[in-house]
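Every protein is a chain of amino acids, and every chain bends into a shape of its own. The protein below has been through that process, and both of its lines are reproduced in full.
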Amino acid sequence: MAWRRLAWTALAAPLLGVAALMLFLGHEQGLATARSPERPAQFALVLGNRAYVDGQPNPCLTSRVDHALALARAGQAQGLLMSGGEDDEDGRIEAEVMARHARASGYAGVVLLERSANSTRENLLLSRPLLQAAGARSVIVVSDARHLWRVRLLARASGFERDFDVQYAGSRTDCARSAWRHWRAALREPLAVVNNALHGYF
Protein backbone atom coordinates (compact mmCIF):
# COMPACT_ATOMS: atom_id res chain seq x y z
CA MET A 1 0.00 0.00 0.00
CA ALA A 2 1.19 3.49 -0.88
CA TRP A 3 0.30 4.87 2.57
CA ARG A 4 2.50 2.25 4.22
CA ARG A 5 5.46 3.21 2.03
CA LEU A 6 4.87 6.86 2.91
CA ALA A 7 4.69 5.98 6.61
CA TRP A 8 7.95 4.02 6.47
CA THR A 9 9.62 6.83 4.55
CA ALA A 10 8.42 9.39 7.08
CA LEU A 11 9.82 7.22 9.88
CA ALA A 12 13.09 6.29 8.19
CA ALA A 13 14.11 9.77 7.01
CA PRO A 14 14.67 11.31 10.47
CA LEU A 15 16.32 8.14 11.75
CA LEU A 16 18.75 8.16 8.82
CA GLY A 17 19.38 11.87 9.42
CA VAL A 18 20.24 11.28 13.07
CA ALA A 19 22.48 8.35 12.14
CA ALA A 20 24.34 10.48 9.58
CA LEU A 21 24.73 13.24 12.16
CA MET A 22 26.12 10.71 14.66
CA LEU A 23 28.77 9.67 12.13
CA PHE A 24 29.64 13.26 11.36
CA LEU A 25 29.96 14.14 15.05
CA GLY A 26 32.14 11.09 15.56
CA HIS A 27 34.48 12.44 12.89
CA GLU A 28 34.45 15.89 14.50
CA GLN A 29 35.11 14.30 17.87
CA GLY A 30 38.33 12.77 16.55
CA LEU A 31 39.47 16.12 15.18
CA ALA A 32 38.67 17.92 18.43
CA THR A 33 40.53 15.35 20.52
CA ALA A 34 43.65 15.71 18.37
CA ARG A 35 43.55 19.52 18.30
CA SER A 36 45.35 21.54 20.99
CA PRO A 37 45.11 25.29 21.65
CA GLU A 38 47.69 27.19 19.62
CA ARG A 39 48.16 30.10 22.04
CA PRO A 40 47.66 30.87 25.73
CA ALA A 41 44.39 32.37 26.94
CA GLN A 42 43.33 34.29 30.00
CA PHE A 43 40.63 31.79 30.99
CA ALA A 44 39.59 28.22 30.33
CA LEU A 45 35.79 28.10 30.33
CA VAL A 46 34.67 24.63 31.47
CA LEU A 47 31.12 23.74 30.44
CA GLY A 48 28.98 21.84 32.91
CA ASN A 49 27.45 18.38 32.79
CA ARG A 50 25.56 16.19 35.23
CA ALA A 51 27.44 16.48 38.53
CA TYR A 52 27.02 13.01 40.05
CA VAL A 53 26.27 9.53 38.65
CA ASP A 54 25.50 6.57 40.92
CA GLY A 55 26.49 8.62 43.95
CA GLN A 56 29.93 9.50 42.59
CA PRO A 57 31.27 12.58 40.77
CA ASN A 58 30.40 12.16 37.11
CA PRO A 59 33.61 11.21 35.23
CA CYS A 60 32.24 12.95 32.14
CA LEU A 61 32.29 16.19 34.17
CA THR A 62 35.54 15.71 36.08
CA SER A 63 37.35 14.81 32.85
CA ARG A 64 36.48 18.30 31.53
CA VAL A 65 37.92 19.86 34.68
CA ASP A 66 41.03 17.67 34.47
CA HIS A 67 41.59 18.80 30.89
CA ALA A 68 41.30 22.45 31.91
CA LEU A 69 43.74 21.83 34.78
CA ALA A 70 46.22 20.35 32.33
CA LEU A 71 45.93 23.49 30.21
CA ALA A 72 46.49 25.69 33.26
CA ARG A 73 49.52 23.69 34.36
CA ALA A 74 50.97 23.98 30.87
CA GLY A 75 50.62 27.75 30.98
CA GLN A 76 47.80 27.78 28.44
CA ALA A 77 45.16 29.26 30.79
CA GLN A 78 45.70 31.85 33.51
CA GLY A 79 42.41 31.14 35.28
CA LEU A 80 39.34 28.88 35.18
CA LEU A 81 35.66 29.67 34.82
CA MET A 82 33.28 26.86 35.75
CA SER A 83 29.82 27.17 34.19
CA GLY A 84 26.89 25.02 35.23
CA GLY A 85 23.67 25.42 37.19
CA GLU A 86 21.54 23.19 39.37
CA ASP A 87 21.16 19.54 38.41
CA ASP A 88 17.61 18.25 38.06
CA GLU A 89 18.80 14.86 39.33
CA ASP A 90 20.13 15.82 42.75
CA GLY A 91 20.09 19.58 43.17
CA ARG A 92 23.86 20.01 43.13
CA ILE A 93 25.34 23.08 41.44
CA GLU A 94 27.62 21.84 38.65
CA ALA A 95 29.98 24.83 38.83
CA GLU A 96 30.54 24.26 42.54
CA VAL A 97 31.22 20.54 42.04
CA MET A 98 33.76 21.39 39.34
CA ALA A 99 35.46 24.01 41.51
CA ARG A 100 35.76 21.56 44.42
CA HIS A 101 37.32 18.99 42.10
CA ALA A 102 39.83 21.54 40.83
CA ARG A 103 40.82 22.57 44.36
CA ALA A 104 41.03 18.95 45.51
CA SER A 105 43.36 18.31 42.57
CA GLY A 106 45.73 20.99 43.89
CA TYR A 107 44.79 23.92 41.68
CA ALA A 108 45.39 27.19 43.56
CA GLY A 109 44.74 29.70 40.77
CA VAL A 110 41.77 31.90 39.97
CA VAL A 111 38.41 30.10 39.74
CA LEU A 112 35.26 31.99 38.72
CA LEU A 113 31.82 30.39 39.05
CA GLU A 114 28.76 30.76 36.83
CA ARG A 115 26.03 28.94 38.77
CA SER A 116 22.85 29.40 36.69
CA ALA A 117 23.31 27.90 33.21
CA ASN A 118 21.12 24.92 32.35
CA SER A 119 22.14 24.49 28.71
CA THR A 120 25.15 24.93 26.46
CA ARG A 121 23.66 28.12 25.06
CA GLU A 122 23.27 29.49 28.59
CA ASN A 123 26.83 28.44 29.46
CA LEU A 124 28.06 30.88 26.84
CA LEU A 125 25.52 33.66 27.41
CA LEU A 126 25.87 33.72 31.20
CA SER A 127 29.66 33.31 31.21
CA ARG A 128 30.17 36.27 28.88
CA PRO A 129 29.55 39.03 31.50
CA LEU A 130 31.80 37.25 34.03
CA LEU A 131 34.64 37.10 31.52
CA GLN A 132 34.11 40.72 30.53
CA ALA A 133 34.08 41.82 34.18
CA ALA A 134 37.38 40.01 34.67
CA GLY A 135 38.85 41.88 31.70
CA ALA A 136 39.27 38.72 29.66
CA ARG A 137 39.91 39.00 25.94
CA SER A 138 40.80 35.38 25.25
CA VAL A 139 39.25 32.07 26.33
CA ILE A 140 39.62 28.35 25.71
CA VAL A 141 36.25 26.60 25.87
CA VAL A 142 36.62 23.11 27.36
CA SER A 143 34.04 20.35 26.95
CA ASP A 144 33.70 16.80 25.67
CA ALA A 145 35.22 16.49 22.21
CA ARG A 146 31.86 15.23 20.91
CA HIS A 147 30.16 18.37 22.21
CA LEU A 148 32.46 20.98 20.70
CA TRP A 149 31.02 21.15 17.18
CA ARG A 150 27.67 22.35 18.59
CA VAL A 151 29.46 24.64 21.04
CA ARG A 152 31.27 26.34 18.13
CA LEU A 153 28.00 26.88 16.27
CA LEU A 154 26.38 28.43 19.34
CA ALA A 155 29.44 30.60 20.04
CA ARG A 156 29.42 32.00 16.52
CA ALA A 157 25.66 32.56 16.39
CA SER A 158 25.49 34.22 19.82
CA GLY A 159 28.37 36.64 19.21
CA PHE A 160 30.61 34.97 21.80
CA GLU A 161 33.35 34.60 19.19
CA ARG A 162 33.10 38.29 18.36
CA ASP A 163 33.62 39.28 21.99
CA PHE A 164 36.62 37.05 22.66
CA ASP A 165 39.52 35.30 20.99
CA VAL A 166 38.06 31.80 21.34
CA GLN A 167 39.78 28.44 21.08
CA TYR A 168 38.36 25.02 21.88
CA ALA A 169 39.78 22.02 23.74
CA GLY A 170 38.13 18.60 23.80
CA SER A 171 38.34 16.30 26.80
CA ARG A 172 38.06 12.53 26.51
CA THR A 173 34.59 11.20 25.76
CA ASP A 174 35.08 7.58 26.86
CA CYS A 175 33.90 8.48 30.37
CA ALA A 176 30.58 6.58 30.42
CA ARG A 177 30.66 3.69 32.87
CA SER A 178 28.33 1.41 30.92
CA ALA A 179 27.53 0.60 27.31
CA TRP A 180 24.02 2.00 27.80
CA ARG A 181 25.32 5.35 29.02
CA HIS A 182 27.87 5.43 26.20
CA TRP A 183 25.21 5.01 23.53
CA ARG A 184 22.82 7.37 25.27
CA ALA A 185 25.53 10.05 25.31
CA ALA A 186 26.34 9.38 21.65
CA LEU A 187 22.67 9.78 20.71
CA ARG A 188 22.06 12.78 22.95
CA GLU A 189 24.39 15.12 21.07
CA PRO A 190 22.86 14.78 17.57
CA LEU A 191 19.40 15.19 19.09
CA ALA A 192 20.63 18.33 20.86
CA VAL A 193 21.95 19.66 17.54
CA VAL A 194 18.53 19.13 15.96
CA ASN A 195 16.78 20.74 18.93
CA ASN A 196 19.04 23.80 18.86
CA ALA A 197 18.57 24.16 15.11
CA LEU A 198 14.78 23.97 15.41
CA HIS A 199 14.88 26.71 18.05
CA GLY A 200 16.93 28.92 15.71
CA TYR A 201 19.98 29.08 17.98
CA PHE A 202 22.46 28.59 15.10
Notes: DSSP finds seven helices and seven strands in the chain.
